[in-house]
Predict the 3D structure of the following.
Amino acid sequence: MAKVEKKRALTEESLREFLREMLLIRRFEEKVEERFRAGDLPGFLHVAIGQEAVAVGVCQAMDEGDVFASTHRAHGHTLARGTHPNAVMAELYGKIEGCCHGYGGSMHLYDVERGNMGANAVIGGGLPAVTGAGLAFKLRDEPRVAVAFFGDGATNIGTFHESLNLAQLWKTKTVFVCENNHWAESTPGWQHSPVWDDMSKRALAYDMRSIKVDGQDVQAVYEAAHEALDFARSGEGPVFVDVETFRMHGHYIGDPQVYRTKEDRQEAADQDPITKLRDRLGVSDDEFESLDAEANEIVEAALEFAQNGTDPQPEDALKNVYA
């Protein structure tokens, strides 16, 4: 929703816009979780509560014309890049008014007009696409960058290594953003990767520039993303950004999280990026309540819009199907 002036040194006003944006994403995901648990939403649902600073920091650093590919946790990225909450909520409800006209749902959000090349239920599925897009931007000499969001678990799949290898070999205009929450679904980082505590080392094998940043600090994420985007945009090659973040909820709605200790879940809650930014800005209780009410009003309006949306016809299931 919010658009801020692209400056490396963020103003307090800009940071307040970031707070407003993160709060909107949080309340949006809390609402869809509530409706999903009530049996009101179809499909499957994954939320990124606790990781809002990554979505806002990176997406607000992108320029018009830049593109990105998301993961199965795409609500935050999609909202932060400017897709209207009404269109996102309607898509989750499978309505024609949704950003994908009801064809995508939660795990397949697209909005090409805003550079969203799509969420992907396939782990790391967007990596080859952004490598190709970054190559196209280079060959056309366009000042655009392609961004891939993916989790730490995706760094173990073949297409991750193939994509980084080709991106560096061909110097594509690509930025790889690893949302490193240390959980590959339900597998702790130390069990799935020898470099789980420093994913930036993944870039070493490809002699790729890497940046490591605290994913709970939205300003730090914004500045790191800005640096990475500027470097890739210059044509000097791709950049790997290791963003350490905390997933406050389970892998999916209903996940009992038996693999996590109470201490781990409490640590994630203690690292809430919204609370951190609120405290840093010295936002009073009254001001926060006003911002919260504004976010809730937008979300409730989006929910009403979606629930009153148009259901597709049965024959629509055969549209856009190609053999």
Strands lie at 67-69, 146-151, 174-180, 183-184, 187-188, 209-214, 239-244. Residues 12-318 form a domain with the Rossmann fold fold (CATH 3.40.50.970). Residues 12-37 form the longest helix (26 residues). The longest strand covers residues 174-180.
